[in-house]
Design a protein that fits this description.
The structure is a single chain. 74% of the residues lie in helices and 0% in strands. Helix 8 (147-159) runs antiparallel to helix 9 (163-175), helix 15 (265-285) runs antiparallel to helix 16 and helix 16 (287-299) packs antiparallel against helix 17. By secondary structure, it is mainly alpha-helical. It has helices spanning 20-39, 43-60, 64-79, 84-96, 100-112, 117-130, 134-140, 147-159, 163-175, 182-198, 202-215, 220-227, 232-242, 249-261, 265-285, 287-299, 305-318, 322-334, 338-350, 359-366. It is built from 20 helices and no strands.
């Protein structure tokens, strides 16, 4: 990673939130209660269950929750195909599983049945960002009345090539944050850190990842990213906290990397195999959602660049974001597949999301393409 100056950077004071353990306990209880009531035919709780499952999966790395969210949201649509809320929730689940075309079609259906226009546009814009359609996302993004909306818009503005505006929006969201949830605050800090990473400002990225994990140490995605900045022993301890709940292969792969750096080679090999086994399971269950994760794994510790290339190409075909296009290009170059590398460059040039963190890599590859 590149590094920026200003290692002494400190974020503005973090808003006060409740204990992450209390929040996790409450979320678990909400899911258990909704599951029991849904089984008794209480429709209100059946409709709420998929969103809660998605929340737990996205924050705690409990990937089995995606399967249940998929099944329960699909069943809800079968039971009530004309309910706008049910359709919108199904679209959210499909989007989380990277089944973007199906999600957009479901959003169209939700809109026809009366879903709120701002909610539909926000969901559509999120999908457009994930699929390289940043200019379209910018046109339909709704107003920003809440702190989380400002952070989401900040992430989009950074992808559009407006890092100063992005950081202004992130900071405004932090200043106006009025929630007690460490989940929401952790997400805002994580998205801000990712924006800084794409700009090569890694000291700032690290600071916001640290802030996210101080408020929410169980946050899987933040721990995976933060581990790359930390000495191996600290990274291992950080990831062990997450692994008390997570079954996400990204967590296992990050742990394997930290073990390798700590020269604990036998443990690193065992953890790599654990990550690989979980990836194989998820590629069967939810291939669209985990192809890009699997590609990065096989390009790195998984040690299979040919498989990485196949997976990365498929992922970028469905969702040509900067991240998926970059792993396609890197896998192509690692495989000495010049035609594939040029195809990745061509696909990147066709998106409306300016390349930020990977611009130099693509510029270098472009020199070898006609």
């Amino acid at each position: 990673m590149s590094s920026d100056a200003g290692d002494a950077f400190k974020p503005s004071p973090r808003p006060t939130t409740q204990s992450s353990q209390i929040s996790i306990h409450n979320l678990d209880a909400t899911i258990d209660d909704a599951r029991e009531r849904a089984a008794r035919g209480e429709t209100f709780f059946a409709r709420k269950l998929p969103e809660s499952l998605l929340e737990r999966a996205s924050y705690l790395g409990t990937t089995n929750d995606y399967d249940e969210a998929d099944k329960t949201s699909a069943k809800n649509v079968e039971l009530d195909p004309n309910d706008a809320g049910v359709l919108a929730t199904r679209a959210h689940v499909l989007s989380a599983l990277h089944r973007f075309a199906d999600a957009l079609a479901m959003l169209d259906d939700a809109a026809k049945h009366g879903a709120h226009a701002d909610d539909v546009n926000r969901s559509r814009a999120t999908i457009f960002l994930a699929t390289g359609r940043c200019a379209e996302a910018a046109k339909i993004w709704p107003a920003m009345p809440f702190a989380l909306d400002m952070a989401a818009r900040g992430a989009m503005e950074q992808r559009l090539g407006h890092p100063e505006l992005a950081d202004t929006l992130f900071e405004r969201g932090r200043t106006e944050f009025r929630d007690v949830s460490p989940f929401s605050l952790g997400w805002m800090d994580f998205e801000r850190a990712r924006a800084f990473e794409r700009e090569g400002q890694n000291a700032k990225a690290r600071a916001y990842l640290e802030d996210a994990l101080e408020a929410f140490p169980e946050y899987a995605h933040a721990a995976v990213h933060a581990a790359t900045y930390e000495p191996p022993d600290k990274a291992i301890a950080m990831l062990e906290v997450v692994e008390k709940r997570a079954d996400d292969p990204d967590v296992f792969a990050a742990h394997a990397d930290a073990l390798r750096r700590a020269r604990r080679d036998a443990e690193a090999r065992a953890m790599t195999e654990r990550a690989k086994a979980r990836i194989e399971e998820l590629l069967v269950k939810q291939p669209e959602a985990f192809a890009d994760h699997a590609a990065r794994f096989f390009l790195g510790g998984g040690g299979d660049v040919k498989r990485a290339l196949d997976l990365a190409k498929a992922a970028a075909g469905r969702a040509p974001s900067e991240e998926t296009l970059e792993v396609w290009l890197l896998a192509a170059r690692a495989s000495n597949a010049s035609a594939e590398a040029c195809a990745a460059v061509k696909a990147a040039d066709a998106t409306t999301c300016p390349l930020r963190g990977s611009r130099a890599t693509f510029d270098d590859a472009r020199k070898s393409c006609k």
